[in-house]
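Re: duplicated header lines in exported structure tokens

Our pipeline writes sequence and tokens for each protein into one text file. With two proteins the header for the second block appears twice in some exports. Here is an export where it did not happen, for reference. First protein block:
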Amino acid sequence: MAKNEKLRVIGWTKYSPEYKEWYEVHGKEESVESVELIVMNELKKRKFKFGGNYHQYGEYGCPVLSDGTVFLTSMRGWGGIMADVWGGDYCCYAWSNVEDVRGGKAPTEADAATPLKYTKEELEEREKKRHEAQKQIQKELAERRREEARQLKDDKAVLREYLSNLLDKYEGRKDELVKFLANDIIGIADRYHAKPMNCHMKWVLYKSERNRVGKEAAKHRKEWLAKFKKDFGIKESDSENNS
């Protein structure tokens, strides 16, 4: 493509990893919106209408651009492009083929074009970068799991302390404690910063006690809500301001 030539779709092909991809070649050199708009205009002009599955695996599912690159996106991304062109929800197109889309139409052999290919050295370098990227992802995932494990350990420590305090407070009054928890008072405690509870612990306590007690506890909600407010020193005006 000449330096000042406007980028356009010159044909269609089946995706192959040896073909140069537009995103990989250009990166953020050009805006994503501009190349997608070029593809969308071509789809509308030629009345092509097919899903993301055909885009990635079909015989002529990938647009070939005038710079020799192939435009390839995710199935969801292609579904979004189709939805922008023809209306409807992206899900109607994302994982579909030609025949799955109402009024579906795909390019034919007459529309075929041959993209530029990576050299052997470029393919080797590409594979090396892909491998390095995967290693980095695995490293980040492992660190995230370690952090989640540390957080869970901290959560359990706070949870044990919280339950211990409740058991001391309601010593000898087990039924009262169960009703207290079952009415989602944990959520209220968190809301008023009465105890250092996070969403995970709130869910554990609420679900376990709620399932155990059942619907019967709901009858006592108003009574135990008032008791909770009294026990934790929450004034009615405070609850109204935070509701």
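Second protein block, exported in the same file:
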Amino acid sequence: MLLFKGHPESVGKTKRVYKAIPMDTKQKIIEEVRHGMHGYKGYQMRGKEITGLFMDAVHIEAMLTLMNYKRILVVTSYEDSKYSALTDEGFNPVLHAGDHMLPIVHHYNNNDSKMYVTKVKSGESIYSQLYEKFDISSVNVDSYYTLGSEFKTKTTVKFDAVVLLGTEAQQMGKYQASDIKKVFAPYCKEEFDLIDIYRGEARTLRGVKKEKDLMQHRHGYKNVVGLTSWDFKNPLYVRAGDNLAWTKWMSIY
């Protein structure tokens, strides 16, 4: 889609198509997002940063599309106070800064699925501002969710997928995915998936994973992405290669 030769698009219950976006359209998208973030608390946003941040989010969007979820709740965790920058000197995303581009990538991908983000009433986040500018649907919450805590919101939507974006825990240690799913069950369909996107080491989520489904989709997606060993010599695409190893930082329960 935004970075590669092909990106999946979901249409209806079963149909998948791979599409590519012309370079001039990609440049327009990057400029629109850069403009949406530039100047926030004096932050000077650069186009290469947007590309670097997209490098994480596009792979999550691809997985969600291939799994054919239709109503997706994204549980955000990005707080300004926890990040001194969005990317490092090589334009690689810091922690989960790139993952939080997911709703923006989803917006441009034009899938027939609907994505909602959690919006903390008193939270300060550059992404909250960005989501508002792009009219990303949201559900209000009082605080950022952490494993081991309660989750409360008001919505009539029943989600078939809940995505934890860099969610930390109240205490370091191991947590059961089944317990976390119980927390979100009141807002979800009877059968729903919990997707854990986590690049840290402070906590572990345990449970029966849907690795077979995940890896089956990854194989086909990897072939369509169109990256070769030559591409991975470019420092920017090293991150892409790491992200293609979905099971290292992504788990579905």
